[in-house]
Amino acid sequence: MTVGGIFISFEGIDGAGKSTHIDRLAQMFREQGRQVTLTREPGGTPLAERLRAMVLNDPMDAMTEALLVFAGRRDHLLQCIEPALVRGDVVLCDRFTDATFAYQGGGRGFDLEMLSTLERWVQAVQGQGGEFTRQPDLTVWFDLAPEIAAQRLQGARVPDRFEAQPLEFFKRVAAAYQSRMNQSPQRFAQIDAGGTRENVWDAVRLALVNRGWLA
Ligand code: TMP
Asked: I need a surface site. Which of 65, 130, 168, 172 has the fewest CB within 10 A?
């Protein structure tokens, strides 16, 4: 069993149903004696949570949106994620940079090269061998057809600026997640999120067991 810090992110279009599985994983890691840092993006620190409220609610152009999510990410990495990994925690992060490529890149059509540049700047951290770009050790992608996600979201709550987008937007978001996975297949576990909750949970648990992180 790995004892060092582990960084796991969770991704998927709105309505894909990540939350209950993230909570269940946190509980399972704790039962197996691990310290867990449960966090999310946008957000995860007091500053980044304030930026989250703006990103989800205030009208703005795509570049402003991209800069705000990366600004929050920098604070979140330095104040929360990196210290947790140094302590040896399991960091379970509900969304990370793949969401920026999916929503701002795919959904809004913002320049992917510029997102890649921001990713390298913002995720540059110090490690034993010098500076490197922090990425999750594993990204669990809840893959669900946008049509089904839209049905699940119907009437669930007052939609934010993303949830209010049309089906076409989510089709682009889903396609952008797919191409992020194609670029780093070893980092991703693609989960069919269309099954029953128990089937999805089995697939999530198996992805972590296969990596030797859960018994
Ligand atoms: P949540 O509802 O899963 O917490 O996610 C909040 C919304 O923020 C979701 O619609 C996706 C969006 N988002 C971005 O647009 N860019 C990002 O970088 C992140 C992390 C989330």
From this structure: 130
